[in-house]
Design goal:
The protein has 103 residues and is an alpha+beta fold. 44% of the residues lie in helices and 15% in strands. It contains three helices and two strands. A two-stranded antiparallel sheet has the order 1-2. A hairpin with a 7-residue loop joins strand 1 (53-59) and strand 2.
Length: 103
């Protein structure tokens, strides 16, 4: 079958399909945020090569700025993860800088 909308078709081998199916099953079967984050981070490790992966949730109700809660990561210790989100949160609270054209 030809690709739709001029998009390239990607073929996956059986090992990758199996890993995707196992990840989908693990996510579906996980109960609670901790388990969901753990299964997702572990499952993507074999599918997508990376050094660090992060999984967080956003609490946005009643606020203009989203608040990141319950962060988890693979490849990053708890202190580094906490420092990262603290720096990111500070940057989000700062007003946007105005860009002035150079004449």
């Amino acid at each position: 079958m030809p690709p739709c909308n001029n998009q390239q078709t990607i073929e996956l081998d059986s090992t990758t399909w199996t890993a995707l199916n196992e990840l989908a099953l693990a996510i579906h079967a996980s109960h609670g945020v901790d388990k969901l984050q753990k299964e997702t981070l572990e499952g993507t490790t074999g599918l997508v090569p990376h050094r660090i992966a992060m999984f967080d949730l956003i609490e946005a109700a009643g606020s203009d700025a989203p608040r990141y809660v319950h962060p988890a990561s693979s490849g990053m210790d708890d202190r580094a993860l906490s420092d990262y989100y603290n720096r990111y949160a500070r940057a989000q609270r700062q007003p946007a800088r105005k860009h002035h054209p150079v004449s």
